[in-house]
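Weekly puzzle thread! Below is a chain. First person to post its structure in token form gets bragging rights.
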Amino acid sequence: MTAKIHPGGAALLVACAAMCTLFAGPAMAQFAKAEDAIQYRQEKLKAMGEESDRLGAMVRGRVPFDAKAAQQSAEALLALSKLPWPAFAPGYEGGKAKPEVWKEMDKFKAAAQRLQGDTAKLAEAAKTGDLERIKAAFGDTADSCRACHREYRNR
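Winning reply:
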């Protein structure tokens, strides 16, 4: 089941995520307990999944294509794609993340950067309103997500 977001809700989500990104720096890198970091990253990754589902439904033709809604989802994904990574710092092991995250931190960070780059391309494609461009960029973004889940997430 995909959550429905009020038409202005995605824009609000993007604005809130952008503000979090601006002020997150050093404060986000420190959580009171590992459980706080785990909860934080799971919330952000879950929100990414929900936006991805919303956009994916349009890309796959399950719901009518709405260029404005697609752009809003892509922008929300871009903002969200920057948020979870400080919560994967040493000392925050656990949750659904495999131990390989911390054993292969450089490789994990590269996967996160790939996702952010692909998501930026998706947001650019969504600005055009061209469904075929959005589909291609969405596929690359989804591939980045799947690759990281395969390597670094326990089911």
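Puzzle host: Confirmed. Bonus trivia for everyone else. DSSP finds six helices and no strands in the chain.
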